[in-house]
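Message: A physicist's question: would you kindly supply an amino acid chain plus fold tokens?
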Amino acid sequence: MAFAGRSVVITGGASGIGAALATRMVSAGAYVTVADLVAADVYVAAERIGCDGLVCDVTQESDVRSLCETVTGKAGSVDIFVSNAGYMARQPEHAASADDAVWQRSFAVHVMAQVYAARALLPQMLARESGCLVTVASAAGLLNQIGDAAYSATKQAAVSFAESLAITHAHQGLKVSVVCPQYVATPLIGLSDSDAAQAAGLLTADEVASVVCDGISAGRFLILPHPEVRGHAIRRAEDHDRWIAGMQKLHARAGEVLSAEGPGGLYRLL
């Protein structure tokens, strides 16, 4: 799928991977709208990138529907919708210790936001037998994120929903992609491009955006900015007990890093 002349919506588009994707797609000739939660951030990003910007709380179906309707009214359609908004709140103690609000927000941002976008856009996409839904999930959606059970569980649900979309609607012209990177230098985990320059396993948002754009253009379902994730997922499938044992060892090593640096420091263990 080429980007030139396409209408693209990117949630969580004011910074990080979302902003990097918007920049690349604008350069490729797409009509891009970035959506994010804070108005000031949205409008600053939109001006910097040279695209439209709209405020949207993806946990509210009415906001997502309004976003899609507004862009459709301006551009005639939404050709590509990128569900990129993310949320992370490290669990304070044991794996079930995050409170209900954290679990509910994780599910709302990582799963229901994708459901809301599909509800809003599938009728028009299926009617014209064309359209693309992209979910920026995480390697945690195929594996697991140490220290954040809510993030891991909901990212895995996001991957599963993307699979359902692809299985159910490919014959009707729908393209679906799911992106599963490991650690990326973004504000979500408190890292910058300068951090990525010092670590082989840490990618910049622009490096991820480059891989994502190539994957969407090629019509790939699973897009892996860190190719090694494929090998990890294969080993998990081949011997789940052995993979769990390995992750238990990694968890033991991760405790000190989490205490000192938070989730952003875990890339040092890879």
